[in-house]
Amino acid sequence: MSANLEQTSFLFGSNAGYVAELYASYLSNPAAVDPSWNSFFQDLDEDSRAVLDELRGASWTVSDLEDPKAKRDPVAESFIVGAPNGAAANGAAAAMNGPGNGAMLSHAQQVYGGISPQQLRAATLDSIRALMLIRVFRVRGHMNAHFDPLGLEKREPHPELDPATYGFGPDDLDRPIFLNYSLGLETATLRQILDILHKTYCGTIGVEFMHIQDPEEKAWIQERIEGGRNHTDFTVNGKRAILERLTAAEGFEKFLQLKYTGTKRFGLEGGESMIPALEQILKRGGQLGLKEVVVGMAHRGRLNVLTNFMGKPFSAVFSEFQGNPSSPQDVQGSGDVKYHLGTSSDRDFNGNIVHLSLTANPSHLEWVNPVVLGKVRAKQQQRRDLEREQVMGVLIHGDAAFAGQGIVAETLGLSELRGYRTGGTMHFIINNQIGFTTNPTYSRSGVYCSDMAKMVQAPIFHVNGDDPEAVVHVSRIAIEFRQKFKRDVVIDMVCYRRHGHNEGDEPGFTQPIMYKNIRAHATTRELYARQLVSENVITQAEGDQITQDFMKKLEGEFEASSTYKPNKADWLEGKWAGLQAQGADSPHRGETGVDIDTLKQIGFKLCEYPKDFAINSKIARQLEAKKKTLESGEGIDWATAEALAYGTLVAEGTGVRLSGQDSGRGTFSHRHAVMYDQNTEEKYIPLCHVSPDQATFEVHDSPLSEAAVVGYEYGYSLAEPHNLVLWEAQFGDFANTAQTIIDQFISSGESKWLRMSGLVLLLPHGYEGQGPEHSSARPERFLQMCAEDNWQICNVTTPANLFHVFRRQIRRSFRKPLVLFTPKSLLRHKLCISDLSEMGPGSTFHRVLGETANDLAANDKIRRIVVCSGKVYYDLLQERMSRGIKDVVILRLEQLYPFPKDALAAEFAKYPNAELVWCQEEPENQGAWHFADRRLEAVLKDVGHKAGRPSYVGRPATASPATGLLKRHNQEQAKLLDEALTVR
């Protein structure tokens, strides 16, 4: 702690026993106190009264006070560390009643000499008010700091930072006040105190840390800020290094502007100090154990980060500006604009090698945030980085986006959760003081763009981007804080953008004054070079030479760019080595069957629990029933098949990670992957006890966030291809709020960025009268995005097919995302069962399930083929059975995409005289109809079937997914079943 016992003891203690006793007497009977003290107490403000109120509960001993190394009282010290103003004495005190009063008074007399009671009162009040002033600077000093390089932000001096607020006047500036080493001084005048406070808290750095509740974290920051180490403590070599980094950052942008005038690049001009700051984070982080950094950022300054921080060749970027591909010609994919691309590299800092990877992202700014965190978590798992100090995420934000996009808050909300924590993320805000054309006063309600970070008690360092030493200094503090406390930390670098939103914009249309100032404003590099010349660190000629040398280097890279060719694609290296870039437009089933004895052995393990475990009686009965089905090999239900898929995978060494809202139990109480002792609520997870050397099984009940959690799991799957990673929606339509992640990352990431993912989305779907909100998982949206074998869309109807589709994800030579529409009522449907043999050796996933009844008419007598997908099959089956219909067959399309045309062709060919009907529960404008219509027609044409094209049966087109009236739902369901099965 920064405050020591002796310091606190004098401010409230050297006279505390005396003053507190007098104050207690005053409160009980004002007349019993000397008139001069009576007047003193009457004149105190509320904060001072709060201080003395807490003094009355003191408990320190003489030995504590006499020994400066004695154990500190955290309650007492919390006053020095601070609480919000208005509770000025928060914890202050514990400042001691009577027992140590003699020793303390003796110490006071050593400082002041012989003093009268009146002088004692004045000295006590000075100390109280000085300490309150110091504390409020810690809380609000940033309100008077100088962040804006342009000087456009006109701040009124904050009244709480005015010494007059605490009763100090001009005549009090040079009177000694006893501080006992607060701010590092035993005594100081008010003038000295204010000078220190202004330099520490109101310069080009402003710190928000008093909102942090952890005393140790708060005290660490205070010591680091006030401890005498400030941003002027750079060596000559350190200053030159900063200048060289600024020269590279500025020179690169100027070179691009010269060679590709007006071309969009979303340059870093105005925010160049970020480059040396990132260098500092990496260098100091490497010294503190950091081995790998995953970076996520939007487009502002991305090319500069790619080259000057990540080490991507300048010639590669110049080649891309000339329209050449960023990957080898033989690698397929649509590609993306250069300021969305990622890369990876190794940086060596005096033997500390740190691996960097920049995550590709779309223009949706902050949506890459949870993706980065998921990648970090996976890499920490791979390294067995239990302390979470070897792998860290760095997120580079824009000011308007950080304040405006809800995904920021959702991602921050993951930071301290057991299933998602990564040991703290480094947030760096490029605060351009504008969002596209919107001024900050119109884009946020808070004082700062970074206010959102207070929700996780992250320290926030505001810093002027035109003071590169200050930016580097706070970056060093930030990485030290992260590595020590494993918490998020924010650097808010206030700067500007020299051009408009992009290099083709005219910003003077909307911000004429700002851009008039910018045009007249010297660059950060120019200002810093002048500073170093004035400090005799370099000469003007040396500064010019640094610039000339770098520009010469760029010219050489530019010449080389005309013949530059990428020599490899890095997307199948590292953990992805051995996997292939292969399409899914064929069965590609993989080896998914498992030995029957193994299935039973694992199944029985999943039905066990510790002898002293007080299991829920209902679950106990379920487990007994499962054992019987496993013994017989018949009647395997949905939950058992799912558990067998996970169990066999972990037994084979493949990790499984499942997360989502209520995933442990399952939304519909079917899974019970986590069981709770009914007396202690201790958890037991059977899938973690399959075998002694099994892989990890994780199941996490997630926060009520879809966007961040889906993004997180997608990021995890990018970094770990050898685990089965699943996200489960509570209901399928909950995926609506993760649509940006689904659209911009999951469905198109491989095509745009050559990044494969095996993520599974489990989306409960089915029309069962629950209304418009929890009926449809919106399959039409996913089907609309299908192309180039980008993913798989399945709607399976048997436990066996579920078992195989999960195992298929990990037992093939490539990875594709899987969108799986899962059932609700089928979880306990008496017909929705499978035999264990259907999961045994030689068994596999079936994209199409043909007719299973053996009592129908001959194939050539079949009059109608009904093709459907999902739960409606069982409704059709039961209705057909109840009516005794023999001339209608029902085919199940288990995989909608890639469309299984060969499997369907074989089925259609069996029934040459039948017409074809597509039946679905969803309205005509939704569901799979518009996706399947022409594809079914094409298959009929290929086999020369006389049916021609299919007809539609289902609900009529509606704006809402489903009716909210159960009676109407039942009528609609009966009608579609009748139409599907009635041949006229």
Automatic annotation (TrEMBL):
Its EC number is 1.2.4.2. Keywords: Glycolysis, Oxidoreductase, Thiamine pyrophosphate. It is an enzyme of class 1 (oxidoreductase). GO terms for biological process: glycolytic process; tricarboxylic acid cycle. Its cofactor is thiamine diphosphate. Residues 636-829 form the Transketolase-like pyrimidine-binding domain. The keyword Oxidoreductase applies. It comes from the Bacteria. One of its GO terms (cellular component) is cytosol. Belongs to the alpha-ketoglutarate dehydrogenase family. This is 2-oxoglutarate dehydrogenase E1 component. The lineage of its organism: Bacteria, Pseudomonadati, Pseudomonadota, Alphaproteobacteria, Rhodospirillales. The gene is sucA.
